[in-house]
Amino acid sequence: MRRPSWASPSSARWRALRPPAEAWWHLQSGTRPSYLAPETPEGESDQLVATVSNLGDATSTGQVTITDTLPTGLSAKSIEAETLEGTGGIGLNHVACSPHPLVERPLVCTVTGVAPFEAVELRIGVTVDPGAHECKQNAPDCEQNLLSVSAPGSKAVSIERPVTISEEPVPFGVEAYEVTPEEEGGSPTTQAGQHPYQVTGTLTMNQTAISHSVKGNVEGHPVALAKDLAGLLPPGLIGNPTPFGKCSVTQLDHGECPADSVIGVVTVTVNEPVSFGGLATFTTPIANMEPAVGEAARFGFFAASVPVFLSARVRSGGDYGVTLGGGDIPQVAAFLSYKLTFWGVPGVASHDNSRTQECLHETREVALGKPPLGACKPLGELSPPPFLAMPTSCSGPLITSGETDAWGHPLPEGHRLNFEETEPMPAMQGCSRLPFEAQVNVTPDGTAASTPTGLSVDVHVPQGSILNATSLAQSDVRDITVTLPEGVEVNPAGGNGLQACSEGLVGWEGFKTYEDEPGVSVASFTPKLPEPEEPGVNFCSTASKIGTVEVSTPLLPVGHHLVGSVYLASQNENPFGSLIALYLVAEDPISGTVFKALGETKLTESGQIIGVFKNNPQVAFEDATLHFFGGERGPLSTPSRCGAYKTTASFLPWSAEPWDEASETIESSSTFDITTGPKTPAYPQGSPCPGSSLPFSPSLTAGQDDHHVRELRGAVADEVNRTFQGDRQHLGVDERVADDRRRRTCRAVGLERHRQTRLMERSQSCRELLRDHEFGVFEPGLRAHSTFRVGDLEVQARPGGAARRARRRGRETGRELQGGAVGHLEGNRDRA
Q1: % of the chain surpassing 90 pLDDT
Q2: For a surface tag, which of 181, 330, 552, 770 has the fewest beta carbons within 10 Å of its beta carbon?
C-alpha cells in the first residue's frame, strides 16, 4: 500500500500552519455588446467591462491598484468604476480613476477596503479604430485586453482576454466560462486528491448593449433569456454533501438557512429594470438543500427576490463526472452572469465572515471603518469534513464545458448549445503522493466439494481519507482483476434455461475516449434505465440475470447504495467478442444515479476463471459486492477436493502514470475452505472428503426400450477429458456395454494419466464409446436403459430427439460451454 510522502497533521496543527487571512483576486474582462462593430457610429461608444473580485478570507489592506491596457484597435473615450456590494446597489467606498483625456495606457483606478466577495467594476467607453483586426469569438487571433490588480499583502494577478470585433450579429450563447480550483492565498490547486480551499466557476452570457438605460449607462442585456444552464465538471472532481446540514425551501425563502448548511457564496448579475432600475448584482451564501428525486445533490440561494436552485447529477453511463446547473431559470430578471464559489472545507473558521447574509453585510461595514455588530457567529467545528476533492489522475488536462438553451427555443438535455471553457484548468500533479489500498474477499455459499454454488466477491476500498480534510484523498480504482482458484469452474448445469443479454438491451454505446484521459477507452452506455422497464423487451431479460451487485460510496447518504444485477452477455456478440462477458447494472433510485459496467471473463487452459473490469469510473466507492446465484443452476461450482483455495486480485489506481503501472499495481488475496464432499441422500451434511485417487468404474447395461445414450457431459466427461489431456493422475476404468443382440466388453484398467500413455482399446465398442472424448461427448449410438449407473453417479439417458433439442437450445442461448451439461448427474465425484 502506498502512503503519501508527508504525514497528515492533526487538525490543530493544520489550523496553526494555515497562512494568515488575506485578500486575493479573481479577474474578469468582457465587452458590451459581446461583439464590437468594426466601425463605431459617430458620437456613440461601446463598453469594455473589467471586474476585480476579492475571493479571499480578509478585507484588502492599503490601496488596491487596478490597471487595464486596451488592445490595439480600441480607443478609450470614458471610464467609470464602482464597488458592487451585493444587494442590488452600489458600494459606498469611492473608486478613483485616471482623469480625462484618456490618452495614456494603461488606464488606472484605485480603491481601498475591498471586503471578501465584494467586487470593483470598471466600465470603459471604447470605440473601434478604423482598420482594427476582426476576429471570431474567443479565436486565438483576437487582440487581448490586459487587466491586472495589486495591493499590499496580497499577490498581484493579471489576465489577458480576447476582444471580439465582428460585423456578425451577436448569437445566443456564452461569452466566457471558467472553473478555477484555488488554494488559500489564490494559487491554483494542482495537487491531485487535494481538498482545495475553494473552487470558483464564472460564466457570462453573450450580451447586446442598451445605450439608454434607466441609470443612463450602457448596460448589457442577454441575446435571449436562458432557460437551462449547466457546467460539465471534469471526471474525478467530486463534492460530498452528506456530512453537512441541509436547508429547507422555507428556511431559504426567509434567509434562515442553518450555518452548517452553507457551503459557499454566489454573485449573480441580472438586468431587471422595474424593481432594480437595470443592472443589479447580488452576493449571497449557497446552502446545501435536500435533493429532489433524481438529483445527487441540490444547492440553493436567494437572489433578485427569487430562490434559485442548482442540481448536481452524475453523468451515468459515460465518464461519471458531475454536471452542475440550473433548469427553468426564473424569467423575472434577465440573467447575465454568475460567479459561484464552493468551499473545499466549509467548516473552517476563515469562512465564518461569509457564512450568512448578515455576515457578508457586517464584513463590508467593518471594511468601511464601522464597528462590528456581532452578527457573525463562529461555527466552531474542531475537525470540519471536506466537501470537495480534486481528481486523482495526472494523465491529462482537466476539461470542463457546458450546455445551455433559451426560453424561446428550449431543447432536451444532450441536444442543447455546447460551450467550451475560455481558460483551461490546471492539470493535476503529485499523483505518486496519493495513498492507495484495496482488498478482495471471496466466499462461496457452501463448503461442499463438487457442488453448484453461489459466490460472493467483495472489493473493499477504504475511504477514510476522503472524509479527512487534512489528508489527500485515496486514488480511485481504475482496473480490477480477480482470479478465482483453480477448481472453481463454470457449472454446466447452470446453463439450463439461462438466457443472455444483448448489447442493444443493456444500452451499450461503444468504447469512447475523452480529452482528459488521452488514449483511455471507457465503456459507454445509455445514461438511464428504460421507463417503464420491460425485461426482455427494452432491457435485459430476467432469465439472463446470474447475480446481484451492490455498491456503497461515501458520496451517497447513509443507507443509500447502488443496487442492481449481474447479467450474462451474449456469447461472442458482446463488446469483447468473447465466450463469456458480464454486464453490471445498479441504480440508486433516489439520486437517479445509474452505474453500468462491463466485465470480461477469461478462461485459462486449465479452466481457471479470471474476471477483468478496466477503466472503472473515477468515483470513490467503499465496497462493490457481486453475488452470483447459487442452487443447481448456479453459474459456478466448487472445487472437487477439500482444502484451502486462494483467490488473488490486482488493483491499478487512476493515479498510476502510464510508464509506472506495473509498480503501482497492488495485490490482494482471499482464502476459503472446502471441508466436505458433496451432499447426498446418504450424507445430507456432506459426504467424506474425496481421496487422492479418482475411481471411475461405470457399468452400462442394455435394456429393451428404444432409448439411445446420446450424450454424457459435465463432471464425468470432464474427468475423461483430463484423462486424455495428460493429467498426471490415476484413473481406473471398468466399462461394460451390452445391447439386446450380443454382449461386448470393453475394459481398460489401471490407466496412467501420463502424456505418453495411450488408451488400450479392446474392442470397436470402446473406440466408439471414447470417440468424442476431447469434447466431453459420448455418442456410441448404443441402445441402453433410460437410467444407468456410473459408479456413484446416476445418469439419465434421453431419446435422441430430446438430446438434439437440448444441444440446439444450448447453442441458441449462448450457454454451450466447454464441458457443458445435458445429461443429468447426481452423486459423488472426485476430480483433480
Answers
A1: 56
A2: 330
Cis peptide before 106 (omega within 30 of 0): yes
CA torsion through residues 329, 333, 339, 340, sign = negative
Give dist(CA 210, CA 32) in Å, integer.
Answer: 9
Closest CA to 594 of 537, 533, 536, 653: 533
Instruction: Report whether 505 contacts 585 (CB < 8 A).
Output: no
pLDDT at position 494 is 64
- DSSP 3-state of 57: coil
- State pLDDT tens for residues 281-315: 999 999 999 998 889 999 999 988 889 999 999 99
d(CA 224, CA 606): 67
Residue with cell 477439500: 642
Confirm if 784 and 704 have CB atoms less than 8 A apart.
Answer: no
Picking from 69, 144, 73, the residue whose alpha carbon sits closest to that of residue 104 is 69
C-alpha triplet 298, 302, 305: angle, nearest 5°: 140
Q: Which of 365, 355, 186 is nearest to 260 (CA)?
A: 355
CA–CA distance, 313 with 327 (Å, rounded to integer): 12
What is the Cα–Cα distance from 125 to 109, expressed in whole angstroms?
15
CB 28 within 8 A of CB 204: yes
The runs of H, that is alpha helices, within 585-714 are: 661-664
Joined grid coordinates for residue 689: 472428503
Are 697 and 746 a contacting pair, CB within 8 Å? no
The predicted-structure confidence for 351-363, as pLDDT tens digits, reads as follows 998 998 888 888 8
User: Cα separation of 53 and 67, whole Å?
Assistant: 14
CA distances from 178 to 282, 374, 398, 399, 497 (A): 20, 36, 12, 10, 55
Query: pLDDT, tens digit, for every residue of 512-567?
Result: 998 888 888 999 999 999 999 999 999 999 999 999 999 999 888 777 899 999 99
Which residue would you say has higher pLDDT here, 293 or 808? 293
Beta strand 517-525 with 545-552 is: unpaired
Give the mean pLDDT of the chain: 81
Cα–Cα distance list, 202 to 60, 165, 174, 378 (Å) = 22, 23, 11, 28
The tens digit of pLDDT for each residue in 749-786 reads 333 333 233 333 334 444 444 433 333 333 333 333 33
**Spatial CB neighbours of 223, under 8 Å, sequence gap ≥ 6:** 170, 171, 172, 173, 205, 206, 207, 208
Residues 595 and 527: beta-carbon distance below 8 Å: no
d(CA 139, CA 400) in angstroms, rounded, equals: 18
The x, y and z cell numbers of residue 490, run together, are: 463454470
Residue 390 — very low, low, confident or very high, per pLDDT cuts 50/70/90?
very high
In contact, 178 and 423? CB cutoff 8 Å: yes
Q: Computed from CA positions of residues 626, 629, 635, 637, in that sequence, does the dihedral angle turn out positive or negative?
A: positive
Distances (CA, A) of 781 to 403, 668, 707: 69, 50, 10
For the chain, give percent helix, strand, coil, nearest 5. 10, 40, 50
Annotate 292-307 with DSSP letters as a single string: PTT-SEEEEEEETTEE
For 678, residues 6+ apart whose C-beta sits below 8 A from its C-beta are 448, 449, 450, 451, 686, 687, 827, 828, 829
408's grid cell: 424561446
Closest to 628 measured CA to CA, from 549, 540, 535, 543: 549
pLDDT digits (tens, 9 = 90+) for 494-522: 666 789 999 999 999 999 998 888 888 99
Exposure letters 320-340 (e unless 16+ CB within 10 A, then b):
bbbbbbbeebeeebbbbbbbb
Mean pLDDT of 147-175: 94
